[in-house]
Amino acid sequence: MAKLKVALIGAGLQGENHIKALREEERAEVVGIADKILPKAERLAAQVGARPYHDAAEMLKREEVDVAIIATPDPLHKEPFLVCAEAGVRAIVCEKPLATSLGDAEEMMEAAEKRGIMVFTHFENRFAKADMATKLIIREGLIGEPVYAEMALDDNISVPTMLWGERSREWASRSSPAYFLMSHTIDLVRWYFEPAEVKEVFAVKNESILGYAVDLYDALLIMSSGAKVRLKSEWVRQMDDLVEFRIYICGSEGGVFYNKRGGYKTSPGWKANLSPSIDFDRVRSVQRRLGEHGVKVSASISPNWSRMGEGWRASLEIG
User: Fold this and answer.
1) CA distances, 47 to each of 64, 81, 299 (Å)
2) What whole-number distance in Å separates Cα of residue 74 and Cα of residue 88?
3) Containing structural domain, residue 47
4) Within 13 A of 175's CA, how many CA atoms are on the CB side?
5) Which DSSP category does 309 fall into?
6) Helix (H, G, I), strand (E, B), or coil: what is residue 279?
7) What is the pTM of this model?
8) What is the pLDDT of residues 279-299, one digit of tens each?
9) Nearest residue to 62 via CA among 93, 30, 32
10) Looking at residue 217, what DSSP letter applies?
11) How far apart are CA 196 and CA 190, in angstroms?
């Protein structure tokens, strides 16, 4: 079978991650890498035997491209996206967020739809093993009906001040914790709880620390199912770690506790306390199904403290 010919636009941190993954993908061949800073494109291109370019439009004229990956900073997706659409590539994989304004997103999608181009916004958490386990636990009703959830995804203050070098201040001012961070948690909420959708949103922000960009957003989402979800994202944390990411989901009969990125004196981990009505045979069945997708979970039983220790309930745990 012929390999998919892939072109990358943006040779920064995320661009490096894409190249790392593509080096292990036998069905794809990287033919070109474009970046406004040519030495960055040259360095990545040398790793995969691709040709480096300073200009994305020039690359797409010279190379036969099936899939274009856009890994530029948040506010710089629109221009390369439209260039890819004009070139008629078969598919575009764009880093989240697709755009930083509704108008830009609509213009981009209209250009892609006009030419029949497939568009994928890159939300990699959907492919993380613990997130797949969370999705299955909720879908199968193993914690009852989702009632409440909390998700906090935060960055160290070095992200908006230093991550993009001398242009950090400019790019951070054109993005925000909502685009850079909360887009991940919003996607997880919609994915975890589908077919329920977000019905109402109440949110506040703070702008007193950086001065040139929003410091944090704190939001309450009301789902069409009635579930309430609190999302908080900030990129001004005065912490030692670069990222902290925590998730808690309260079901009517159980819950999921998920520390994705450990912070101070904590470590990553995932545990689901299941409904007491779930028998152990079904727990084993779920355990096997997750194992088929490469998700290894251990199963255990413990006293059911929701009923004063009377009876037992099962738990699943990763790590």
Assistant:
1) 20, 24, 42
2) 23
3) 4-122
4) 29
5) T
6) coil
7) 0.91
8) 889 999 999 999 998 999 999
9) 32
10) E
11) 7
What is the number of domains present in the chain? Answer: 2
Tell me: do 82 and 206 sit in the same domain. Answer: no
Which tokens belong to 227? 């579930």
Q: What are φ and ψ of residue 275, in 5° steps?
A: -60, 140
User: What is the identity of the amino acid at 28?
Assistant: A
Q: How far apart are CA 169 and CA 163, in angstroms?
A: 9
- How distant is the alpha carbon of residue 286 from its chain centre? 25
The predicted-structure confidence for 187-202, as pLDDT tens digits, reads as follows 999 999 999 999 999 9
In angstroms, the CA 171 to CA 161 distance is 10
Give the phi and the psi of residue 154 in degrees, each rounded to 5: -125, 150
Cα-to-chain-centroid distance, residue 35:
23
Q: What is the C-alpha to C-alpha distance for residues 30 and 45, in angstroms, rounded to an integer?
A: 8
Last residue of a domain, one of 90, 122, 154: 122
Per the structure block, which two tokens stand in for 257? 């506790």
| Dist. CA 200–CA 263, nearest whole Å | 31
Looking at this protein, which amino acid is placed at residue 47? Q
Q: In this structure, what CATH number is given to the domain that contains residue 194? A: 3.30.360.10
Beta bridge partners of 245: 153, 261
Query: Mutual orientation of helices 129-139 and 280-292 as an angle, nearest 10°?
Result: 140
Interior/surface letters 260-299, b for 16+ CB within 10 angstroms, e for the rest: beebeeeeeebbbbbbbebeeeebeebbeebeeeebebee
